[in-house]
Amino acid sequence: MTWLVHRRLALLALPLLAASTSTCAPLGGDVVSDGSLVPGFTTARHVQMGDWTRDYLLHVPRQPRYNLMGFRRRYPLLIVLHGSGARGETIRQQSGMDSVSESRRFLVAYPDGSGEMFGLSTDWNAGQCCGTAHFDRVNDIAFLRALIADVSSRLPVDARRIYIAGFSDGARMAYRAACEMAGEITAVAAVSGNLVTEHCRPSRPIPVIAFHGSEDDEVPYNDSAYSVPLRPPPPDAGALPPTVRFWLAADECGRIEAQRVSAHVMRTSGVGCTADVAFYSIEGAGHGWPVAARPGNGVDEEPNEVSASSLIADFFLQHRR
């Protein structure tokens, strides 16, 4: 993309503010050089934590949010966490969340984990498992807080609408955030992950949406939850994964309701809960981020009948802290 094109884009969509790092990308493209946070672009940023620099990508939608009176509203902020052996750009491409942020008009951040392997930021300290970040006792909760503060210092963020989603080890980290940041975030989403945080005691009931493939061979569908809830889960939830049962219990759900939403996808919802809990079981699917198959897109190896990104965005935007 030429300097002239960047200049025209900047003139058409006035920069929101100067960025501390200078990389920016058009919707769906690679991160390229630019000097400001321009609507419709994805910018590489960093936060300083003592002597350590932590990186993340931030996508700003083209169109601002307005209320019924025509005044600009603050942006919801969605943070999406990658799996092990990956980085923010990986989950950005995997989830396609930039496009969803454009239609729903929220900010989306993709942070990098820590621990270097072949040049990739590899994992998160999600609790009692796993990888370099866990063994090095990296304070990823502090990183998430610093990221939120950095975005909020530069853009109008709605503090009551901050959400965290994750895939695999990132899902485990999202669950840890639910345990330890319930007073600061609104809801969490987990794709192909389990709870590995001990003594999880959220300060308030927190909405949770989760997805898991029944044939997942990396984080097994029925993998253990490392926390025991203070109360029993609903008696009719015995066939659900232990982590889902934990959140049904933590959010005080009295029973569950199941609904088949497609040939291979079952949605289970908690009933009578203090916060919403929704779980999508994907029969026959392995370890991946569900992307609804469309004719000609080549997604036909597994049952991909729902879009996790769209469902997560819809669930999140229904909730305000």
Description of the molecule:
By secondary structure, the chain is of the alpha/beta class. The protein has one domain (47-151, 161-317): 3-Layer(aba) Sandwich (Rossmann fold). The protein is built from eight helices and 16 strands. It has helices spanning 3-12, 88-95, 97-104, 131-135, 140-154, 169-180, 242-250, 308-317; strands spanning 23-26, 32-33, 41-49, 52-59, 65-66, 72-73, 75-81, 107-111, 114-117, 120-123, 157-167, 187-191, 208-213, 255-262, 265-271, 277-282. It has a twelve-stranded mixed β-sheet with strand order 2-1-3-4-8-7-11-12-13-16-15-14, sandwiched between helices. A two-stranded antiparallel ribbon has the order 5-6. A two-stranded antiparallel sheet has the order 9-10. Strand 1 and strand 2 (32-33) form a beta hairpin. Helix 3 (97-104) packs parallel to helix 8. The protein is globular, with a radius of gyration of 19 Å. Mean pLDDT is 86; it is low at 1-27 and 295-301.
Secondary structure: helix percent? 10-25%
Number of strands: 16
Shape: globular
Instruction: Provide the gyration radius in Å.
Output: 19 Å
By CATH reckoning, the class would read: Alpha Beta
- Separation of the first and last Cα atoms: 40 Å
Tell me the major beta sheet: 12 strands, mixed
User: What is the CATH architecture term?
Assistant: 3-Layer(aba) Sandwich
Residue windows where pLDDT falls under 50 for at least 5 positions: 1-27, 295-301
* Mean pLDDT score: 86
